[in-house]
Amino acid sequence: MLSKTPPMGFNTWNTFGENINEQIIKETADKMVELGLRDCGYEYLVIDDCWSKRERDPQTGKIVPDEEKFPNGMKAVSDYVHSKGLKFGMYSCAGTRTCADYPGSFDHEYLDAETFAEYGVDFLKYDFCYKPDSANGPLLYRKMGMALKACGREILFSACNWGNDEVSRWIRSAGAHMYRSTGDINDSFRSFADIALSQVDNLAYSAPGCFNDIDMLTVGMYGKGNVGSVGCTDIDYKTQFALWCMFSSPLMLGGDLRKLNDFCLDLIKNERLIRINQDEESRPAFVATESWNDKIAFAKLLSNDEIALLFVNFSESKCGVPLYFENLGITAASGYGLEMTDAFTGECIGVKKEFMQIHLEAHDCACYICKLKK
Description:
By secondary structure, the chain is of the alpha/beta class. The protein has helices at residues 13-16, 22-34, 37-40, 73-83, 109-119, 137-150, 189-198, 234-246, 262-268, 271-277, and strands at 8-11, 44-46, 87-93, 123-127, 156-160, 178-180, 211-213, 251-253, 286-287, 295-301, 306-313, 319-324, 337-342, 348-352, 355-360, 365-373.
């Protein structure tokens, strides 16, 4: 079964956009191994849009790689990625053209799926630009889902229709293993905060086999690259990564791995946060705050009788984020409290009962892995 837990890897779009080539992919693959990211579970290296020529081959009808960017062809790139113990991903679009105006897979689904299989592709991101007005969006994803099943290779299907057509209600039936439920992210606190808050009502639509993808991470970009925008602080990145882990979102890195600083590398390799994301039961997080706007406590039940808690200050000033344990189902009469371990540092902070309040700077968060204790 593909996608038992949220997929993890790297996607080229956030940093490189159209400026991709064979050398960048090889260097990124090298870094995924050298930095220990592969061993943490980041296994997919995905080439996004702009890898092909502007038109299909007139004889075969196939999408053709841009030989200036990929002089040795996509199979050679795929082989190199596989030689590093990684999995190889590529991109297409359900419409007639991709979002950057390259050939899309509309009416070519089976041919393109066979082509991707020939390349040795393990992951397909499937976008939603240039859909003909008369075309049925869900049916387009079902077509590619069937084409991938027929292609003779196991390929993870990453649907990206930005939350259109009530996607969470039908995308699992189309064969997707992860699906985008939001618009595109950029490297700013407001962007990722708005994305996270927009998904509070959709947290239950994510489970083994098909995970709600709230877009690629921007950790480590600092305002540079294709979606650089205003950039984020280290505190912002800390909160972004914790939210993605808590929400069981796929962890697809988007910052340039060749330029990651120690803070960002330690963050994305944090074994406790990754464990929250990759928990085998993949239960949805829920809001544990009685009334909320910009200060929220989230909770998530984990395997091994553990509970993850995430306190987030979405505001622009310091504030306290309260949590009454009754909202977790832990009554005062039970005598139980929570033995808490800081997910960022690993420090055990003891047992808390009935109520706690975490004071946080603007944009900051606190995350804990807890056990019930009397």
